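Weekly sync, protein design subgroup
Attendees: M.S., D.O., the rotation student, P.L. (late)

Item 1: inverse folding check
M.S. brought a backbone from last month's batch and wanted to see whether the design step gives back something sensible before we order anything. D.O. pointed out we never logged the input encoding, so this time it goes straight into the notes. Structure tokens as presented (319 positions):
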């Protein structure tokens, strides 16, 4: 693995984070906001769900993140016959040692791409639950810790193209954010067409970070200050999602956002503030991440839920 440039070690934090985003934008062209959301999700120690059509760069984003941050990466193609052991690992009897030896699965990597997660049966989907929430795997009576940092990027096709096993609400709630990449604009698409497959550039990336440095960034994000007035604003947003039983653009939420969703919203806003170079969280940080955090927790899927979340932002007064 290419070692990151030594000059970056002593660079200001803002320059380090900006360098990461700039390198990602060389691969995923014209998608600055989704890329920033994905990086913020990682800094907030969450997990990311990308719901979009095939061919817009979902798996490329995962590879580029891993290469840029110097993290071990694995991809799992979820299919209807995928078993939990294919993800977590399996114990195989060693005839020489006369004992079972555990062979770890792809989940034991720092960045794991769960590609087309909605194609796998519920039993395999649920194998990710403990790993995502507890950052550990319990198997054969033993608990094995996962790497730190640990980041799952799951992809699924849009609702109208889903496979046989849509994600249940309990699984969706494990994802801090859900985003779309979408089609590039005309200029970005022209640049992509002229430059060929951008994935070929990823092996030549310099690693701009390593696990200890990334963990330090995550601690910096968690330390961002939140004022009482901002907490009032977040509580107002949470209350608004729970009260939409009438008509209008924000009608039809499942049950509104939970207190845990509120904590995740604050974590995401802290990470966004860090990427903006601020030691404290402002209302615009909450507004920037709110649709991605709330969308998949509201009714109608991530796309419809994000529209509901944007409508709520227009109705809830700023502090």
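Designed sequence read out in the meeting:
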């Amino acid at each position: 693995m290419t070692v990151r440039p030594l000059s970056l070690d002593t660079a200001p934090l803002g320059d380090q984070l900006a360098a990461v985003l700039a390198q990602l934008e060389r691969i995923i062209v014209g998608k600055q906001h989704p890329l920033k959301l994905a990086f913020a999700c990682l800094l907030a120690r969450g997990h990311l769900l990308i719901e979009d059509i095939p061919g817009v760069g979902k798996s490329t984003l995962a590879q580029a993140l891993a290469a840029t941050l110097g993290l071990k990466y694995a991809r799992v193609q979820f299919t209807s016959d995928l078993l939990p052991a294919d993800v977590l690992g399996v114990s195989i009897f060693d005839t020489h040692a006369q004992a079972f030896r555990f062979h770890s699965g792809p989940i034991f990597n720092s960045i794991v791409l769960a590609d087309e997660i909605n194609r796998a049966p519920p039993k395999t989907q649920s194998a990710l639950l403990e790993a995502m929430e507890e950052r550990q795997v319990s198997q054969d009576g033993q608990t094995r810790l996962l790497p730190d940092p640990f980041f799952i990027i799951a992809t699924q096709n849009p609702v109208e193209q889903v496979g046989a096993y849509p994600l249940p609400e309990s699984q969706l709630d494990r994802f801090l954010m859900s985003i779309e990449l979408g089609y590039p604009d005309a200029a970005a698409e022209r640049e992509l067409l002229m430059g060929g497959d951008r994935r070929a550039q990823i092996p030549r990336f310099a690693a701009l970070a390593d696990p200890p440095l990334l963990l330090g960034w995550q601690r910096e994000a968690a330390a961002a200050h939140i004022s009482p007035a901002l907490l009032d604003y977040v509580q107002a947003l949470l209350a608004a999602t729970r009260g939409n039983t009438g008509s209008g653009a924000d009608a039809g939420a499942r049950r509104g956002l939970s207190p845990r969703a509120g904590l995740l919203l604050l974590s995401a806003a802290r990470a966004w503030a860090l990427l903006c170079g601020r030691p404290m969280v402002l209302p615009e940080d909450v507004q920037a991440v709110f649709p991605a955090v709330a969308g998949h927790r509201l009714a109608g899927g991530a796309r419809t839920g994000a529209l509901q979340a944007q409508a709520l932002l227009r109705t809830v007064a700023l502090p």
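Discussion: The first helix runs from residue 13 to 27. The chain has two domains: 6-79+111-125+148-215, 223-315.
Action: P.L. to compare against the previous round before Friday.
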